[in-house]
Fold each of these.
Amino acid sequence: MEQKLEKKCNVHDLKLGKRYCLTSLPEFKFILKVIEVHTYYVRFQYFDGLIGIAEIRPDSDFSCYEMPYTPLEQELL
């Protein structure tokens, strides 16, 4: 059974190079890696390599979950 992600993050908590998931369950189609953070937008890369940009205001209620690398992924990096 999949483990739920616990650490919820807001827009101002997003860190460059970290992975996040848009849902509390770690589904690969909702995993993204932050590659650029600005005041009003975030540039990210999905798990499959697709790059996107989202306009996110600092006062928005956007939230996601921190998605740490698994031990196997850490070994491969």
Note: The beta strands are 8-10, 19-21, 31-37, 41-46, 51-55, 63-66.
Amino acid sequence: MAPLPANNTPRFKVNYTVNSTDHSFILRTHDSPSAFGTIVDDFLTALTDALFELTVNTVEFAADSSNIFLPVTTGIENNAYSTGAQANPGANWFYGFIGRSAGGRRWHLDIFGARTLGTDFRLVPGENTDVDNAVTELTLATSLVGIDDASLSIYPYVNCGDNAHWQRAVRP
């Protein structure tokens, strides 16, 4: 498949802090900011016990065909999910939610702050209830789309990992 431009659809960028480090993730949807906030709140609430404390700092929006992200109010700004913090090496752990769009394009969403990597760096259904609930919330969020603006099918398993960028950043 030929690559599509990153600005092919409207995008929301969620900027958050976990384990004293700032991160962000992007989701694509045509929803209003408040409807988007509800989706993210439901997702992070479901995932809460599987995370270290994650605080949403700001949310930004870029319209389709635009590369400019501007702040929006979604109702989740300054929300905190879970408690506790992890120092290195666990501070770099993440959950990788994956799927495909109806058009066959890959989709993924990485969230830092994972409390576990599982036994084989993948959590399958039934292995972690909170992660299973987060997958369910993403599946219920039918307004989320892929880069091709087609609906998403979220896979039932979640990959886990130790991010290589952050590994190298803490090396002497």
Note: The longest strand covers residues 152-162.
